[in-house]
Amino acid sequence: MIALLSAIKQYYRLFERMMTNMALLDANIKAQLNQLLALLEGDLTIQLSVGEDKTSTDMRELVTELATMSSHITVEEATLARTPSFSINKVGSESGVVFAGLPLGHELNSLVLALLQVSGRAPKVDEATAKRIQAITKPIHFETYVSLTCHNCPDVVQALNIMSVLNPNISHTMIEGGAYQDEVKEKDILAVPAVYADGEFFEGGRMSLEDILDKLGAAQDSTGFDEKEAYDVLVVGGGPAGAASAIYSARKGIRTGLVAERFGGQVNDTLSIENIIGTKATEGPAFVASLEAHVTDYPVDIMKNQRVVNVEKNDFVEVTLENGAVLKSKTVILSTGARYRQLGVPGEQQFKNKGVAYCPHCDGPLFKGKDVAVVGGGNSGVEAAIDLAGIVNHVTVLQRSAELKADSVLQTRLRSLPNVTVITNALTEEITGDGTVNGLTYKDAVTGDVHKIALDGVFIQIGLLPNTEFLQGTLALNERNEVIVDAHGATNLPGVFAAGDCTNAAYKQIVISMGSGATAALGAFDYMIRSDVKELVEA
Ligand SMILES: Cc1cc2nc3c(=O)[nH]c(=O)nc-3n(C[C@H](O)[C@H](O)[C@H](O)COP(=O)(O)OP(=O)(O)OC[C@H]3O[C@@H](n4cnc5c(N)ncnc54)[C@H](O)[C@@H]3O)c2cc1C
Fold first, then answer.
1. Fewest CB atoms within 10 A around its CB: which of 25, 264, 296, 361?
2. In this structure, which residue's CA is closest to atom 14 in ligand 1?
3. pTM of this prediction?
4. Per-residue pLDDT tens over the stretch 213-237
């Protein structure tokens, strides 16, 4: 399955480019789909509910095409809750997986995975997560509104499809916003993915399977974790830093574990990456797939979808998971990365997914022709503003201090754009709205005057927060709550090392995180061979 996912993700970029340039499937994509559909494990019925509109015609063409590629697929006409839509079922049972609108673009992976999983291929989830899903007894119907350019949406769609496949109490419909604009308008959806459970808004934005289960209050199961033997190195975090740490450790021939909430970390949310030295250009999901393939080449015990809630130094370093299990290791490398910083003003939470957004790549197209603001004048804010200026009517960039902080080349580009206004000394006070965002108020830091701007959306781009809350009081953090490390990646707690965006590294980038992951792994190895052997053996 890992190889399969890796193959799917390698095709991701190609799929995306092709899907945007053509009507439906061309020869290359068909050839690739043919290979993937050869992996179907059982007979499927696709129930097709279509009318006379263009999307219906395209949907019929897509589904018919799929059926010609595999003798396992049969198509039957049906009347489903939405038209156009289609459901994917194993013959003789209902999976609850429905696609309303065309699952092309970023969602083509979701379609392929759904076909494979409904056919009987085991979804890529660990046993503990599968048990949590199967333990849900209350019937829940999820609906996820997506756009085909949203790179956060497939994770959510695929997580909910997996839940549907593993638990007959759960069903899930992906709804492509473009085909269901009336619903999008009626629900005031201005950011995707937007997930509804039994008709009520459930959550918006990027979510892992673990996040969904946590929000549902699904019980955690620690079976199998407590019995694990102590590790030589246990890596906490599965982003670039964690992956590098695990590979460097495992290559020393020592017992290595990796526990992560979301393998790949922030890279999952990145579209174009052009600064990984030696790789001229790649995309986040493809890069995550290659990271995972590389780590799994080594004997690393990977525990995905697991959150660490405590780290304690006793004889071993003890790492407590949210499911209650305690993992022991001679050394630990913390590589828990960072997340989007919230603005913390009134209206931000209230209008999340109703005009407040964090991901211009995902949500920019939803503001086509509208007026938006970008809060934050650093590199990410100015990059977002340049990106949005090509889509929306007007962008206002608000920067707290007297000058933008972005690289001068970006500032020059920004100021050359006719539909961008930059306001400096602007202290955002409130995001206002009436159902959805209608404006923003800011105070001029120099004059104290309060101004209001009429807007349809606000993109918040004010940096990242280190994921170190669970380390407060355990080891030394700096004033930004970053783990303080020395040149060997060592923290002030013996045997505990750290790497990547969660540390006080001056810059937060993929190659920098990888380099520091390698440093921390070598530092941990050095620590072990220099420590009192007797102490470690006895520990
Ligand atoms: C939108 C966007 C675009 C970017 N573009 C680029 C780019 O083009 N080039 C570039 O070099 N950099 C880019 N970056 C920055 C780059 O992604 C980060 O610097 C890099 O991912 C940091 O790697 P990391 O391993 O330190 O942390 P992360 O990638 O944040 O990974 C952290 C890991 O720790 C896990 N974790 C967190 N808390 C816990 C916990 N309590 N228990 C268990 N696991 C936990 C997470 O699930 C994840 O697996 C971008 C970032 C973003 C958000």
1. 296
2. 509
3. 0.70
4. 989 987 777 778 888 999 999 999 9
